[in-house]
Amino acid sequence: MIVTTTENIPGHTVRETLGQVFGVVVRSRGLGGNITAGLRSIVGGEIPEYTKLVEDARRHAIDRMIQNATVMGANAVVMMRFDSGEIAQSMNEVVAYGTAVVIDPAP
Predict the structure, then answer these.
(1) Is the pLDDT of residue 37 over 60?
(2) pLDDT for residue 83
(3) Residues near 70 by Cβ (< 8 Å), separated by ≥ 6?
(4) Model confidence over 75-100: pLDDT tens digits?
(5) Domains of the chain, start order
(6) Which residues fall within 8 angstroms of residue 13, CB to CB, at 6 or more apart?
(7) What span, in angstroms and rounded, lies between the C-alpha atoms of 55 and 23?
(8) By C-alpha distance, which of 86, 98, 83 is closest to 21?
(9) Most exposed: 39, 54, 62, 107, by fewest CB within 10 Å?
(10) Nearest CA-CA partner of 57 in 87, 93, 31
């Protein structure tokens, strides 16, 4: 399935727009990871424990969005975006969303 952040896909035309589609993931870092990340934040710089958490959550959200688009009969998702937030200061929510479409190769 083609997933793009653009409205159009070069070499393809949108035959049908099926509607909005999304994938939601809520993740929490374990106590050990939170302690390690907290210690790293004292000296500054990247916190790999949280970077991995967000990367994994985004990948999982995209996978769920693709599953939902497939169920709708789509073969592509256009205008894909991410949104994220924090829940109860210990959990990270990531949403991947876009428009499910059916595309055909351009003549």
Answers:
(1) no
(2) 95
(3) 1
(4) 999 999 999 988 877 778 999 999 99
(5) 2-105 (3.30.110.70)
(6) 103, 104, 106
(7) 14
(8) 98
(9) 107
(10) 93
